[in-house]
Amino acid sequence: MQQNEFITEIQRFKKEKNAVILAHYYVRPEVQDIADYIGDSLGLSHAASKTEADIIVFCGVNFMAETASIISPLKKVLIPDNTAGCSLAESIEPQDIIRWKQNNPDGVVVSYVNTTAEIKAYSDICCTSSNALKIVNSIPAEKKIFFVPDTNLGNYIRIKTGREMDIWDGDCCVHNRFDTKIVLDKSLEYPQADILIHPESKCSSDPVIHSMSNAYFYSTSGMMKHVNSSHKREFIIVTEEGVIHEMKKNNPHKEFILISTKAPCRQMKKVTLEKVLHTLQTEEFEVKVPAELSERAWLPIKRMLEV
Ligand code: 13P
Ligand code: SF4
């Protein structure tokens, strides 16, 4: 089948089944192009909570589809490839949180949304990269915090808020490659460019990077807003390559320099048009979080959405 035939069939089944397609900025360009909504983790959570569709086809990795199922338990959530995982989400087990809680019964567990439903169920509040500072600042100063599972995002929050926290030692295998050296080298090549850095990146807590007047820290949708509204012409993009597609579409005359062309998120790239059509046609790969677990995992997400 040709690409345009896949697209026609996807549109047909979408209409027939009253389905909505949500896609993260890191999936393949052709998959982003057939989505009803493209966004970062927070934006996608909001979209999942608001949709009136009967079926959500979640083009992303497992924890994102799980989150959509927790937020919208009455909807059918489908994932085109149910083996699409995340190194960060897989870096921590419930036992790691239970142990910390035993030693810190009054402490607060803040979990990044890149976690499994089990981890969310043991957490007090969730956050995403776009609201993490706000969430941590909303926790009373006397409370001890355990931030899980991303060490780079945790250290970034520690620096920005001045808040001491226990931080789990997990990382994203994509962003953890983006260290200070690679950013400094690229900025020497493009001295006029703004540098947009995802806080999951290894360099995000380095004072050297924080001292650069052209370095900005954003979630993927924050980056999108910056490039759309800036008068600058060049941008060094320190995150997964998928974001460039939408940036170029909205800003054809600006230049986007990827920090690395060798660091795609292989899990996100598992989602293809063929698999989107397959899941719509067959309804194979439903992501359904069991009711009791879903109710517990919903509480920290709800607290996050309220903040
Ligand atoms: P955001 O979508 O919050 O920018 O996070 C990026 C990411 O790594 C998602 O897997
Ligand atoms: Fe997970 Fe990193 Fe891929 Fe995001 S980019 S899904 S954090 S492995």
| CATH topology (fold) name of the largest domain | Rossmann fold
Q: What structural class do you assign from the helix and strand content? A: alpha/beta
* Number of distinct helices: 14
**CATH evolutionary superfamily of the largest domain:** NadA-like
Bound molecules: 1,3-dihydroxyacetonephosphate, iron/sulfur cluster
CATH class identity of the largest domain? Alpha Beta
Q: What distance lies between the first and last C-alpha atoms, to the nearest angstrom?
A: 46 Å
Topology order in helix (H) and strand (E) letters: HEHEHEHEHEHEHEHEHEHEHEHEHH
Average pLDDT, rounded to a whole number, is 97
Largest sheet: 4 strands, parallel
Task: State which percent range the strand residues make up.
Answer: 15-25%
The proportion of residues forming helix, as a percent range, comes to 40-55%
Low-confidence stretches: none
Radius of gyration: 19 Å
How is the largest sheet built, in terms of strand order? Answer: 2-1-3-4
Number of domains: 3
Primary descriptors:
307 residues; alpha/beta; Rossmann fold; 3 domains; four-stranded parallel sheet; 12 strands; globular; binds 1,3-dihydroxyacetonephosphate; binds iron/sulfur cluster
